[in-house]
Amino acid sequence: MILAQSRLHVGREMSPELALQTGEGAGQRVKHPEPDAGGIVPLWREVPSRYTAPGYYGLALLKEPVWIWSVPSYFYIGGVAGGSAMLAAALHGKKRLRRLASWCRLLAFAGTTVGPALLTYDLGKMSRFLNMLRVFRPSSPMSIGSWSLAGTGMMATLFLLQGDRSGAVTRYGTAVGGLLVAGYTGVLLGNTANPLWRERRLLLPLLFMSSAAASTAGVLQMMPLDKREEKVVQRFGLVGKAGEAASMVAMQRNDSTVPEVAAAAREGKGGMLWTAAKAALVSGILVELLPVRSPLKRKVSGALTTLGAICLRFALLEAGKAAAREPQATIALERGRMRR
Prior knowledge:
The chain is an all-alpha fold. It is 69% helix and 0% strand. Helix 2 (70-91) packs across helix 12 and helix 3 (98-123) packs antiparallel against helix 5 (141-162). Keywords: Membrane, Transmembrane, Transmembrane helix.
């Protein structure tokens, strides 16, 4: 009689004396509990269960990125090339900064030359890189990036050869190409199914472009500069470093919405590299702000900024690998997306 009354009055709610639910259906909640049937059976808003987080038989849902060391190296060198291209265009025609402009043109040319070589080394064959240029798809970050790299390399070569005699087409073409090369890699990462990169997709382009400016300034700071050149490089670098620091802070706050993604970013090799990148970036800023003017201070700040930029690229790759190995990161991210 008690069992019949309990079934009649409580509907989908269960008493722990009658049932214990397990599996993926466990942990469900009753939106509108039925009124108490006189205390015959205690009512539960949450079904009592031995609930465990859903998994995929202990296997990863996604494949890890198969990129090797040459890809994050390209991310850094491409950033330096992009930042140098933009700065070279901005300094064009300024006689007192002619030497600095020539160094920027040289860095842009070197970066867009070494970059395809690093990508080809990862791909294994030159033909695979050339095949990406057979079509142009505006909807594909990979296609945009391939054409941007090839086009910017051509414009940077012309800019280097023409020097101060460069025309507006070469100058502005190099600047726009440099902006694309510096930022498209962030769009490319965010356009994947990797939960860590997808969760950060809105911040990655800003991070990469800011870090490109900081990386360029870091390289230039380690070169011999006069006072006027040092002032220009310092201002350019501080803007980039501020944007890079703000993006990293925003990313960490964004990670807190999905604990599994945050764990992948904090722990393991990726977490160590991320911490090293933050420490190097902050140290470089603090050294640069010291009220002392000396070549040693400038070079130390540049070296720390360079170290932080390199660690940042490798941290994103290693943390992405860790996130792909964790099925809960993918499941939690998809559930959060569906709820929104």
